[in-house]
């Protein structure tokens, strides 16, 4: 007779990865389950009788020294025994019973049958390899946005020297089947020609097709560097309203390819990026604020899939960038050009491009030199206008007054360098808390070379070992909310008793790790994902660790955005009851990885003194 | 009432010899639970039955049994012991079928029951109705065992402290919502495993040793 207690089926249904199976499979699994009361006294007999087998804890607390010698503290919902099932050559595991409890036992035969399901199998291989399951992240339909452009480009660039004729250019385009062409001078980009140029500038005007191609090209076109990602390319194309974007090598600026709108369309289904184009089209403060205020609703309505959550922070940050540039344009239209070179710099989440609905603005002005009183007045008004304007667009004013409207944050290049030297001398926890936000920075408008000079001057200062040690110790102050026996430690928030502050207790910790390693390696880019990508590539971090932390960051960020959008909230208190069973497992695995990375950072940067 | 109970149950304090010196860790166990239409044995009817087998610290899910009992019991139909079809399940089985299936365990396993009294009275009544005699059944009553433990810890036992849920909670088991007779049978067996570990961690006690707790009871008649 095929029946089993409901509670067995219920427990399996709640226990990822068993939740992937249909009712019949679960029933079959349940029928072949042995339920064991595992105690310190009977553990040897039990393990002898059942191993190799998969064990799932329903109650009790156990310390497992797994087949590879790693100690794990486990409790309800956790598994053990799977390493031996996956790899029979591994050693034996040891069990210490902290408090006895009920453990479900699945024979190796049942385990093998269930492993025919790929996601079931990958759950356990990921657990074995101590990584957050990559599949969940890899499946995301937005991962392509994060890939460097050089990995995305389909083919070498189609290019032609400027002195060749229009007809020759058209022939190349026709032979290669492309709609645009890079025009070069000594192999360097000087312009592009598109189908549209041939139509509008040649055919429609009856132009002589033997003329050199540079007569009809668009000179000095916008371009992007090959180590940037697809997202940056799309944002640039949307902002400039162009359909063809040459890609140049970052080192020697030689053309390496072309990104076109059709590349984007091919990759992208309708998504939240639409907002960027809308913001770029605005021509007045009124229009800008009107579009900006629609962003939250637009996000809530359109961000439904994991992939949308992955890019939501980037879109919001790019949107804030565009608002800033628009506001600066509006101010200059009324008040005239700035009296000297300046750069609008952003910090914190906007710099990292991981803003959320609750993020406030953090920005500053970097000036070429100390201004005289009239110049100072101009920039005061300038900053006041932009910060207030951002506020009107829904980007909250900063509580800590980290805004360009604060005179302390309108520094000359020299003063900014001095400030960095000050940072490394005062590494008290309070001081670190104060300047930590400035360590993630990005230029948004104005003269970027000014900012680049600051970064170059600051780079060696911030590589100071004592400074980095202090940062490492400081970021170790916060730890992940996971108890000794692998239980999530939750807090009460808004009437829900099972919340975790995903920003303070998780995302910020990963950001800290990325920042620390990036400073050490002398990387100036601010984004956490980009930092990990590069740190892994250049060998500044073990690539496996870097990729794992990157995936963890994406996963945490996804939980955060889903929480904010589905609950219409701007806080970061994610309720554990909103998570699926597999997400809870992933969250625990993520926390464990973060904890390990924190420990090894303390070791690496401060010689283990924490 | 008390004399009536004694008469019906023929309470017998001696454990059949086959079980007496069997260590607890080798006893074959059958945990059972029933649902009735009421609490008064005179008028109550069987609604469902569930049981599951175990031994030592294991519970074998493959042995789970669950049946709804047909309200209007037609005793003329031949009882089918095994191989209940899906259709039979929907309609429920005759009480006689359930009884025959259960009695195949009477001398093969020690029954584990939480609060055995009502269940055994009901089985006795059912046996009479079927013109049979309830065979000798040895029962471990997890409620009595819990009361024995509580008595050692408290002078006054808090109300509800001996319910299945409360007993399980003391061992840190998840609070399973009450489902059906089979769920409770499994929950009872899990409770027994935890209780056994508490009183006999080294696995040296026999069924006889357990008698002093008042949790071992013998029902029915020696055939």
TrEMBL record, chain A:
PROSITE patterns found in the cross-reference section: CBS, CNMP_BINDING_3
Residue span(s) of domain CBS: 152-209, 217-274
The Cyclic nucleotide-binding domain, residue ranges: 54-113
Molecular function via GO: [protein-PII] uridylyltransferase activity
Key word Lipoprotein present: no
Pfam families attached to this UniProt entry: CBS, cNMP_binding, DUF294, DUF294_C
SMART domains given in the database record: CBS
Key words of the record: CBS domain, Repeat
Official protein name in the record: DUF294 nucleotidyltransferase-like domain-containing protein
Organism whose genome encodes this protein: Opacimonas viscosa
UniProtKB/TrEMBL annotation, chain B:
Keyword Mitochondrion: no
Top-level taxon of the source organism: Bacteria
InterPro entries: Ribonucl_H, RNaseH-like_sf, RNaseH_sf
Any GO BP annotation: DNA metabolic process
GO molecular function: 3'-5' exonuclease activity; nucleic acid binding
Keywords: Exonuclease, Hydrolase, Nuclease
Organism ancestry: Bacteria, Pseudomonadati, Pseudomonadota, Gammaproteobacteria, Alteromonadales
Nuclease found in the keyword field: yes
CDD domains: DEDDh
Pfam families in the cross-refs: RNase_T
GO CC entries: cytosol
PANTHER family documented for this protein: DNA POLYMERASE III SUBUNIT EPSILON (PTHR30231), PROTEIN NEN2 (PTHR30231:SF4)
Domain Exonuclease span(s) in chain numbering: 28-201
Protein name: 3'-5' exonuclease
């Amino acid at each position: 007779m095929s029946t089993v207690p409901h509670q067995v089926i219920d427990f399996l249904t709640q226990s990822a990865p068993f939740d992937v199976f249909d009712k019949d499979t679960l029933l079959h699994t349940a029928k072949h389950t042995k339920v064991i009361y595992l105690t310190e006294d009977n553990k040897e007999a039990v393990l002898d009788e059942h191993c190799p087998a998969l064990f799932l804890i329903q109650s009790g607390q156990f310390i497992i020294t797994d087949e590879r010698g790693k100690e794990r503290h486990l409790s309800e919902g956790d598994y053990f025994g799977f390493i031996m099932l996956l790899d029979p050559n591994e050693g034996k595991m040891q069990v210490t019973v902290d408090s006895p409890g009920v453990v479900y036992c699945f024979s190796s035969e049942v385990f093998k049958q269930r492993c025919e399901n790929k996601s079931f199998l990958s759950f356990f291989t990921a657990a074995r390899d101590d990584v957050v399951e990559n599949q969940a992240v890899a499946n995301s339909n937005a991962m392509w946005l994060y890939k460097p452009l050089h990995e995305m480009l389909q083919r070498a660039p189609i290019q032609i020297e400027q002195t060749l004729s229009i007809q020759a250019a058209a022939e190349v385009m026709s032979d290669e089947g492309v709609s645009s062409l890079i025009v070069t001078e000594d192999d360097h980009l000087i312009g592009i020609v598109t189908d549209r140029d041939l139509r509008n500038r040649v055919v429609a005007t009856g132009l002589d097709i033997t003329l050199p191609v540079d007569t009809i090209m668009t000179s000095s076109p916008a371009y992007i560097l090959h180590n940037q990602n697809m997202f940056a390319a799309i944002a640039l194309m949307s902002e400039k309203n162009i359909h063809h974007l040459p890609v140049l090598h970052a080192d020697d600026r030689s053309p390496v390819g072309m990104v076109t709108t059709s590349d984007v369309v091919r990759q992208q289904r309708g998504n939240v990026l639409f907002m960027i184009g809308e913001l770029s089209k605005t021509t007045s403060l009124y229009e800008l604020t009107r579009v900006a205020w629609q962003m939250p609703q637009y996000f809530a309505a359109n961000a439904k899939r994991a992939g949308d959550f992955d890019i939501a922070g980037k879109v919001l940050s790019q949107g804030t960038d565009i608002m800033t540039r628009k506001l600066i344009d509006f101010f200059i239209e009324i008040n005239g050009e700035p009296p000297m070179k300046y750069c609008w710099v952003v910090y914190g989440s906007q710099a990292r491009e991981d803003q959320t609905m609750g993020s406030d603005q953090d920005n500053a002005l970097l000036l070429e030199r100390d201004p005289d009183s009239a110049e100072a007045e101009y920039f005061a008004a300038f900053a006041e206008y932009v910060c207030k304007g951002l506020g009107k667009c829904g980007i909250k004013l900063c509580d800590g007054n980290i805004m360009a409207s604060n005179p302390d944050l309108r520094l000359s290049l020299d003063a900014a360098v001095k400030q960095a030297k000050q940072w490394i001398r005062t590494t008290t926890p309070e001081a670190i808390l104060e300047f930590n936000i400035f360590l993630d920075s990005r230029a948004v408008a104005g003269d970027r070379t000014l900012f680049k000079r600051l970064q170059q001057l600051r780079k060696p200062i911030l590589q100071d070992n004592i400074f980095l040690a202090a940062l490492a110790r400081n970021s170790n102050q916060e730890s992940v909310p996971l108890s000794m026996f692998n239980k999530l430690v939750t807090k009460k928030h808004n009437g829900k008793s099972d919340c975790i502050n995903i920003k303070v207790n998780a995302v910020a910790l990963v950001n800290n790790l990325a920042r620390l390693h990036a400073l050490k390696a002398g990387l100036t880019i601010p984004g956490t994902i980009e930092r990990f990508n590069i740190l892994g590539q250049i060998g500044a971090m073990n690539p496996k660790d870097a990729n794992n932390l990157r995936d963890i960051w994406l996963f945490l960020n996804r939980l955060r955005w889903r929480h904010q959008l589905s609950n219409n909230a701007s806080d970061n208190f994610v309720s554990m009851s909103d998570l699926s069973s597999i997400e809870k497992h992933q969250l625990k695995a993520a926390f464990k990885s973060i904890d390990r990375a924190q420990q090894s950072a303390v070791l690496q940067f401060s010689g283990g003194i924490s | 009432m008390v004399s009536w109970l004694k008469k019906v149950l023929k309470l017998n304090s001696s454990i059949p010899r086959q079980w007496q010196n069997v260590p607890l860790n080798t006893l074959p166990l059958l945990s059972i639970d029933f649902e009735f239409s009421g609490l008064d044995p005179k008028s109550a009817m069987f609604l469902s039955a569930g049981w599951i087998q175990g031994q030592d610290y294991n519970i074998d899910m493959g042995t789970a049994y669950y049946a709804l009992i047909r309200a209007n019991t037609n005793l003329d139909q031949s009882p089918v012991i095994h191989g209940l079809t899906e259709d039979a399940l929907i309609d429920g089985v005759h009480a006689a079928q359930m009884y025959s299936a259960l009695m195949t365990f009477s001398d093969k396993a020690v029954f584990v029951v939480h609060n055995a009294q009502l269940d055994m009275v009901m089985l006795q009544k059912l046996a009479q109705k079927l013109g049979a005699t309830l065979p000798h059944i040895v029962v471990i009553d997890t409620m009595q065992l819990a009361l024995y433990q509580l008595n050692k810890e408290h002078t006054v036992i808090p109300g509800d402290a001996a319910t299945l849920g409360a007993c399980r909670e003391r061992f840190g088991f998840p609070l399973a919502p009450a489902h059906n007779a089979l769920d409770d049978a499994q929950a009872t067996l899990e409770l027994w495993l935890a209780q056994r570990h508490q009183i006999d961690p080294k696995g040296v006690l026999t069924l006889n040793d357990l008698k002093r707790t008042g949790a071992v009871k013998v029902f029915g008649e020696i055939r």
